[in-house]
């Protein structure tokens, strides 16, 4: 790990110029191209943070900023190297534009699982690492439609504040020759982005479509009115199975099957009256 020490500018939240960002980007990009880059990011000034010291097992919180600027961290870059010498050579290539050529960097080697003695304590960390390896990068609903996928995804993008990322037709796919002309412009893969979330869908070829059963798409909002607006939008020309109202677990909850036959649960994060 390359630890970039803080200085007066980083603590004053002086943002890097576009040229500095580009230089740092190319530095990380070279490691990415070499297959050794893992992660890297900058840290906000200590005025945004806090220091938590434990005294006799009790936490004592001190809000930033902190005076000892040279001891603070402004960012880090994590990468792989075969040796300390190789790592040092990487650090020597740090962009000279950073800090006008006056920065303090610290190079540290990380522990690996193999460095520790086997035992129950290490097993806890191995089990956690195993869980993380099995966790997917993302989970999102994939909805099937009987020829109206494009219309449905455009509707969801409008109601849920999303943006269509992809709408690929069968005509533009290797499956074009397997289907007749009437199905060529149907959607083989569609995706809308809703912030960091994704919603995907496709038109199922004739004879293979089955009406969705036993599943609802659940969405939640932090405020009641936002949840109610989404519910009303989805309910337009749809069928309400549970009107939007307060429940014992939520300030606002409702269930609806939209005009395309997709069932939704709309929930408000705020708890209801007990």
Descriptive notes:
The protein has 274 residues and is of the alpha+beta class. It has six helices and 14 strands. It has helices spanning 8-11, 18-33, 84-92, 120-134, 149-160, 224-235, and strands at residues 2-5, 37-42, 50-55, 58-63, 73-79, 105-107, 142-145, 163-169, 187-194, 197-203, 217-221, 239-245, 253-257, 263-268. Strand 12 and strand 13 (253-257) form a beta hairpin. It is extended. The model has no long low-confidence stretch (mean pLDDT 93).
Provide the fold topology.
Elements: E1 2-5, H1 8-11, H2 18-33, E2 37-42, E3 50-55, E4 58-63, E5 73-79, H3 84-92, E6 105-107, H4 120-134, E7 142-145, H5 149-160, E8 163-169, E9 187-194, E10 197-203, E11 217-221, H6 224-235, E12 239-245, E13 253-257, E14 263-268
Parallel strand pairs: 7-10, 11-14
Antiparallel strand pairs: 1-5, 1-6, 2-5, 3-4, 8-9, 9-10, 12-13, 13-14
């Amino acid at each position: 790990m390359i630890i970039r020490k803080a200085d007066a500018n980083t603590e004053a939240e002086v943002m890097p110029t576009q040229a500095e960002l580009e230089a740092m980007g190319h530095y990380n990009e070279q490691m990415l191209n070499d297959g050794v880059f893992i992660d890297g990011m900058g840290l906000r000034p200590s005025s945004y943070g806090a220091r938590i010291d434990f005294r006799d097992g009790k936490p004592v919180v001190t809000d930033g900023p902190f005076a000892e600027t040279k001891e603070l961290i402004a960012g880090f870059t994590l990468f792989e190297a075969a040796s300390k010498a190789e790592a040092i050579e990487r650090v020597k290539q740090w962009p000279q534009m950073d800090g006008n050529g006056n920065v303090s960097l610290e190079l540290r080697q990380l522990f690996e699982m193999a460095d520790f003695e086997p035992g129950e304590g290490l097993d806890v960390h191995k089990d956690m690492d195993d869980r993380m390896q099995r966790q997917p990068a993302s989970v999102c609903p994939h909805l099937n439609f009987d020829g109206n996928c494009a219309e449905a995804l455009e509707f969801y993008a409008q109601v849920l504040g999303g943006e269509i990322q992809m709408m690929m037709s069968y005509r533009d796919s290797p499956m074009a020759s397997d289907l007749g002309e009437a199905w060529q412009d149907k959607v083989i893969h569609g995706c809308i982005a809703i912030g960091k979330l994704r919603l995907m869908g496709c038109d199922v070829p004739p004879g293979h479509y089955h009406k969705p059963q036993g599943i609802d798409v659940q969405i939640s909002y932090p405020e009641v009115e936002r949840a109610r607006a989404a519910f009303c939008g989805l309910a337009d020309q749809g069928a309400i199975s549970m009107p939007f109202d307060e429940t014992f677990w939520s300030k606002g909850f409702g269930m609806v099957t939209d005009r395309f036959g997709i069932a939704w649960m709309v929930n408000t994060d705020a708890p209801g009256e007990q």
